[in-house]
Structures are given as structure tokens and as C-alpha cells.
Amino acid sequence: MLSEAAVNEIKEIRKRYVTARSCIMPCLYVIQREYGYITEDGMREIAKILDINPILVFEVSTFYTMYNKKPVGKYHVQVCTNISCSILDGEHILDVISKKLGIKAKETTPDKKFTLSTVECLGSCGTAPMMQINDKYYENLNDAKVEEILNSLR
Amino acid sequence: MFEPVILKNINVADSHKLSTYLGSGGYQGLKKALDMTPDALIQMVKDSGLRGRGGAGFSTGLKWSFIPKDATLQKYLCCNADEGEPGTFKDRAIMEYDPHQLIEGMAIASYAIGADTSYIYIRGEFALAADRLEDAIKEAYQKKYLGKNILGSNFNHDMYVHRGAGAYICGEETALLESIEGRRALPRIKPPFPAHVGLFGKPTVINNVETLACIPHIVNRGASWFASIGPAKSPGPKLYGISGSVNKPGLYELPMGTPLREIIYTHAGGIKDGKKLKAVIPGGVSAPMLTEKDLDTPMDFDSLAAKGTMLGSGAVIVIDDSMCIVKAALITHEFFHHESCGKCTPCREGLDWLVKVMRRIEHGQGKEGDIELLEKLCVDIFGRTFCPLGDGAVMALRGAFNNFREEFDFHIKNKRCMVNGNR
Question: Which residue of B has its CA nearest to A25?
């Protein structure tokens, strides 16, 4: 069940739009924050509060990549491998992280602490190579910096 | 001497706060605008010559003038802050370091078109920028720059941040509208254009962040000041984001039309590690690449179009001679393939096929006839989709073929890379 705070947040979101359907994207973020990922029950709860058909919520959740359809680790490490990062050895940074964590991209460490992903451009090209961990950007990366950042999260 | 205006506060402490913005003359443009008629304001933006900074380069004043004048009609302004074109990071800087500049520009634009509500559609990954915008909007409400009877006028305006969730297609204006309406971001066919049937079926203007950030300066300094900067047909200050193999990558505000050579060698410090320049993508990955011979091209809409490429977002990606162009093209097309929304068959199926062929070429398994197959796929995709995503992919690949065809041929014939010898 969603917390009272989450339900109130959804009601506040509803005031921003003329249609209930427009609230789906912001409400999916509320679900993700509450449950850690997008659960089917959570989507049904959104639909009920917004008084819309649950299928409308399901079809949105599957289109957008930032809604996690399954649990991710406490720290979601996302490494950019697009062109500007690639020119400055973004793939090498990915390798360093992969070796350090002992997992490949799309995997989660057995202790559920880290999930590693590759992502398309994150809009940080002037400070490449870069990675995002949860909401925070880490830029101008090199081997030592990556080591230090990951150690600080251990 | 050119004086930066959009980035003038970027290195000032607490540049994102209202007190800093007010200290540098912030919200004076809104005050002036509210003393003008909406028509006069639209004419001023037309006279300035401002062309949209999102990529298409359409006249901003003209776009505003398409909105019906009927005061009883609900109208909307949407800010396109879904900055997702690889190489591009200019709008993020405005939102993180000077969000009030955008809010002021949006309030003025909304007054000009008669919109009482606006949405900032920001890409989901920009969490810090979204937080700073939310805080700045709260500050603006407290000081009556937003809300009811703004600065004592009859103008009412509410502004909201709407976070995307990881889909490049949302940068396409009709897909952006679908996304705000709570749907999968599939582009709409045009016409009708958003100026007549936009958000929730109402007349809507969609402008890029950098475009809207120019507005307070145009109102404050006048249309002729803006028009006097850079080329007559696409004037004004421009943010150029330089990335890749240069000594000083970053964001530079320069007059529109600054030559590529000056941007790369004077401002961005030249090529990194003493390497040689091989190719430049001038406006984000959709823009066909250029080479050394094109470096004296002025970076503006028309000069780049004449070279068969485009200014796009002004995102300059510099590739040095240690990079394989086949690999660079594959990275680019993996992106387009991943981000195709799937609505149009030529884009959905065509990009999938194109990437499969490019992967095998890159990995030393290319076959005779693969280049011809890729060229045929380009013909089958280009111009056959609702939005320009497929076109962008095709233009990028054709740019690589036009300049570096021999690298693709070498990969297929020798089953290895011409540049680094890798299989």
C-alpha cells in the first residue's frame, strides 16, 4: 500500500494537469520511490487514485527507460558509452567499474548494493567520460576517481 | 568585443538563486514586457531575428504569431528541455546555473501568446536541474513573477516542471506533447501544427530552453542589439558545446556564425594529446560530419546547411585520427536504433537492420554488398516517417560514407579496422 504521504503527493500532482492521464508519468516516479521499482500493484494503485484504466498506466511504464521494471541495487551505476564519452575512453571506464564490482552491465551484485548499466548520452559530454549513480553525476572520470567513488559507497 | 549574456552568471556563486539573478538585472525584461502589448512583443522578437535554438532554426517571433488571437481560447507554452541529442549539454547548464533566466523568458513568452499555463518538459536524468527549477519557480511565485496578477498586471500565469523518463523521442515537439498528456511519446502527424492543435488540443508554442533564455535579453536590450550580433539571417549569441578530443571541452557562448576552426582551436584549445583532427560533427549526432577542409565554415544555420550538414543544437563533437569512423558510426546508430519510438515501420525495422549490418562490418564479418545494402536502407528510411529521427540517422550515416567510405570498404575487405588494426 502506498504511504499517506505518497497518496497526498499524487493528489497534489493531479492539480497541475487538466487530465488525470497526464499525471501518470510523475505518479510512476512516486511509485518507484516508494517501492524501489515499478510494481504492478503500484500501477493499479495509481490508476485507482486517478480513476483511470490501469492499462493506461502499464503502457506508459513500459515505454520509458527510467522506470525500473525490476528491482535495482541500492546504487544504480549508469555509465555513458555514447560518442563523446567513447572518444575519451568511456568503455574503459565501464571495464574498470565492471571489474571492481565483479558484475557486467545489466547485472546486480549479490549483496544487492550495486546495479551496473550502460546508458545512451546523459547530457554531460563536455565533462566526459562520466557516470551517474542514482541522481548524481560524476564527471571527468579516470581510473583513480572511479576507484575512490566506488570505495566511498562500499 | 563580444559580451556573453546567457552564460554571464554561470561562474557566480549561488547563480541559481533569485537574489543573484535580481542582482544582475533579472526580471527587468518581464517588467518591460508587461508594459508592452503582446503584439508589440511578438513584433520585437520577429525584428530580433531570433531563430529557435533547439535545432530546426525556425523564426521564434513567427512561431508565436501563429497562435490564434482569440482571448477566450486556452493556450499553452511548453519549454522543450528534453536535451537528449548526444554531444549536447547547453540547456542543462542554463537550468542548473541560471534557472530564473529561463523562467523569466517563459513568463514573457506566455504573456506574448496569451498562455496562462506553461510546462517545462525536462529530461528525466537531469535531477539537479529539475530540483533547481522547482526551487526557482517557488521563489518566482513568492515575488509575484508567477501566479495571479503578475507584478500588479492583469496577467496570470502558472508554471510546472514535467520530468521525462528516458526517451530521446520526447525532444520531438509532438512526441513531447503526447508525453505530457500521459501517453507513450509517439510523434503526431503534422498538420495540424501545435500552434493550432497542441497540448490538450489547444494552441501551443514549444520553444527550446536556450531560445527562451534569449528573450529577457532581447526585451532588455532591444531587437536591434540582438540582430547586430552574427549573420543577418541567424543572429544573436549562441551556446556551443564542445566535446570529444579537444584540450578544453565545455560550453562557450560566442556570436552565431563563429567559424568552426576558431571554436575548436582558439576556444577549445585544439586537439587533445597532439593528435590530428579527423572529423567534426557540428550539431549533435544527427548532423553529418565535416572534415579539416570545412573548418572555416561559420557555425550558423544557413552556412552549415550549404555544406550539407546542420547547426542542430550547436553541439560540436571533435573526433581525432585515432578513432575509427566505422566504430563512431556504429555508436551513433546504436543510439538511434535504441531510441526509435517504433511508430513508423521504416524507422523501427530499418534502423534495426541497419545496425545489424553495421555491427557485422565493425566486428570483421562484413560481406560484399553490405555498403550497397546500407545505402538502400538509407533510401528506404529517409523521408518516410512521422518525425525526423530516422532522417537524422540516415543523414549521419551518409555523412560518414561521404567522407570516410574507404574505412567501411577496408573493414569489409580486410576483416579488420583500418585505423587501429582490431578485428
Answer: B182
Edge-to-edge strand list for the sheet holding A107-108:
A107-108, A114-119, A75-80, A131-133, A136-138
Distance of CA B4 to the CA centre of its chain: 19
Question: Which residues of chain B make contact with A124, given a CB cutoff of 8 A?
Answer: 89, 92
DSSP states of A112-148 as a string? S-EEEEEES--S-GGG-S-EEETTEEE-S--HHHHHH
Q: How far apart are the first and last CA of chain B?
A: 51
| Residue of chain B nearest A19, judged by CA positions | B181
CA distance B91 to B129: 9
Residues 6+ apart with CB under 8 A from B47: B61, B223, B224, B227
Q: Is B206 exposed, middle or buried (0-12, 13-18, 19+ CB in 10 A)?
A: buried
Q: Strand runs (DSSP E) across A1-152, as ranges? A: 75-80, 107-108, 114-119, 131-133, 136-138
Q: Which residues contact B304 (CB under 8 A, 6 or more apart)?
A: B282, B283, B287, B297, B310, B311
Nearest C-alpha in B relative to A81: B331
User: Are B182 and A84 in contact (CB < 8 Å)?
Assistant: no
Interface test with A, best of B119, B331, B332, B337 (most A CBs within 10 A): B331
CA distances from B261 to A56, B236, B249 (A): 50, 19, 14
User: One digit per residue, pLDDT tens: chain B, 423 residues?
Assistant: 899 999 999 999 999 999 999 999 999 999 999 999 999 999 999 999 999 999 889 999 999 999 999 989 999 999 999 999 999 999 999 999 999 999 999 999 999 999 999 999 999 999 999 999 999 999 999 999 999 999 999 999 999 999 999 999 999 999 999 999 999 999 999 999 999 999 999 999 999 999 999 999 999 999 999 999 999 999 999 999 999 999 999 999 999 999 999 999 999 999 999 999 999 999 999 999 999 999 999 999 999 999 999 999 999 999 999 999 999 999 999 999 999 999 999 999 999 999 999 999 999 999 999 999 999 999 999 999 999 999 999 999 999 999 999 999 999 999 998 888 766
Contacts of B82 in chain A (CB under 8 A): none
Q: How far apart are the first and last CA of chain A?
A: 31
Residues B412 and B371: beta-carbon distance below 8 Å: yes
Query: In whole angstroms, how far apart are CA A66 and each of A119, B165, B208, B297?
Result: 10, 5, 22, 39
What is the enclosing helix (H) or strand (E) of B311?
A: none
Among B96, B118, B181, the residue to mutate for chain A (most A Cβ within 10 A): B181
| Cis? peptide before B298, omega within 30° of 0 | no
> Would the ipTM clear 0.90, i.e. be above it?
yes
Cβ-nearest to A18 among B125, B200, B318: B200
The three cell numbers of residue A32 are 518507484
Cα distance between residue B207 and residue A7, in whole Å:
33
Contact between B123 and B170 under an 8 Å Cβ cutoff? The reply is yes
What are the helix (H) ranges across B183-273?
209-221, 223-227, 260-261
Ramachandran angles phi, psi of B168, nearest 5°: -60, -35
Taking the CB of residue B355, how many other CB atoms lie within 10 A of it? 18
